[in-house]
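Bench notes, afternoon.
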Amino acid sequence: VLLVLIVASVLLVCLETVKELMDHPTWSEVLRRVDFSIVAVFTIEYFVRFFVDVSKWKFVRSPLNIIDVLAIVPTWVTFAFQMESIIGTTKVLRILRILRVFKLTRHSE
């Protein structure tokens, strides 16, 4: 299930680059809601893994877990601060979302 969500999330990041889709209010809202839902699942999954891990410090310092945090934080920051009007910051945060691709490495082992 997580692998499907990771692929869907990467596809959403790609679809957000299609100007015609993002100019259409309905499609842009659908993409935003789907992305938010997927990030919510990623966030829950991260915290579940954190709470069941014996060594919290080792977990937090793990490279793949750092990538996971860097992949989900941009969505929460954008949501929390409604930074849509700050174009440069939003673009940087969206670029960081491509780190979700690296989540695939966790599932390819």
